[in-house]
């Protein structure tokens, strides 16, 4: 015997079954399934481990490094020059014939102050007469250096204090002449001045300026060698 149910009753029963099946899914936080739509679960292969995708973590950023301050740069610069004292012998140059000199370099300021000394005495005699001449020079210069740490262009200027005396005589007669002259002088040339100390060298143009003379500029040259410490 076949029983025929009314169509509205069949619709109510179907809606009740769908509601009953969707209630657990809603309780578990899953999306509700739509009536009339068939949902299938993906089949897993045996022996394969399935993992849930995780959000990709951003790569760690390196910590920012602080830029060197101006004070750090100045402190590093001050540490460059270790040898500020220089002793050298100059041939020719600002001492005229020769001079023994001491120079002080003021840190890394590229400025220095130099002082020197020389003494020469010569004599001659013939027959009943004799003559003697002596010369004392004191070169004092300030220098400014341009260039790298060890190889520099030297620009210097100052005064060379000269004292000269000449005496001659024969028999009972004696004549003598002496004089003191501060002569302006320059120093332009190449200077090897190692910052860490050691051998130092100079060669260049060292003219004198003679005030009131026929030659205002007296050309001269010189070279020096010594040690920095």
- Let me know the largest β-sheet: 8 strands, antiparallel, barrel
N-to-C span = 126 Å
Q: State the CATH class of the domain at 79-228.
A: Mainly Beta
Strand order of the largest sheet: 1-2-3-4-5-6-7-10
Structural class: mainly beta
Cα-based radius of gyration, to the nearest Å = 50 Å
Tell me what portion of residues adopts beta-strand conformation.
over 45%
The CATH topology annotation of the domain at 79-228 reads as: Porin
Instruction: Please give the share of residues in helix.
Output: 10-25%
Uncertain stretches of 5 or more adjacent residues: 1-5, 22-29, 74-78
CATH architecture of the domain at 79-228: Beta Barrel
Mean pLDDT: 79
Helix and strand element order = HHEEEEEEEEEE
The coarse silhouette is rod-shaped
Number of helical segments with 4 or more residues: 2
Strand count = 10
């Amino acid at each position: 015997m076949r029983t025929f149910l009314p169509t509205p009753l069949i619709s109510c029963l179907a809606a009740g079954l769908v509601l009953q099946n969707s209630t657990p899914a809603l309780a578990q936080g899953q999306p509700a399934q739509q009536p009339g739509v068939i949902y299938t679960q993906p089949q897993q292969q045996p022996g394969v481990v399935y993992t849930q995708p995780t959000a990709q973590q951003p790569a760690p950023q390196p910590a920012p490094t602080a830029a060197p301050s101006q004070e750090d740069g100045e402190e590093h610069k001050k540490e460059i020059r270790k040898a500020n004292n220089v002793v050298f012998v100059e041939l020719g140059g600002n001492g005229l014939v020769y001079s023994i000199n001491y120079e002080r370099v003021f840190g890394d300021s590229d400025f220095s102050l130099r002082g020197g000394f020389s003494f020469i005495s010569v004599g001659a005699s013939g027959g009943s007469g004799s003559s003697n001449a002596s010369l004392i020079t004191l070169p004092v210069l300030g220098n400014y250096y341009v260039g790298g740490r060890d190889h520099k262009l030297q620009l210097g200027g100052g005064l060379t204090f000269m004292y000269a005396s000449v005496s001659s005589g024969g028999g009972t007669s004696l004549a003598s002449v002496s004089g003191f002259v501060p002569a302006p002088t320059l120093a332009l040339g190449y200077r090897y001045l190692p910052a860490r100390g050691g051998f130092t060298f100079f060669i260049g143009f060292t003219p004198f300026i003679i005030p009131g003379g026929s030659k205002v500029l007296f050309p001269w040259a010189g070279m020096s060698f010594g040690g920095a410490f």
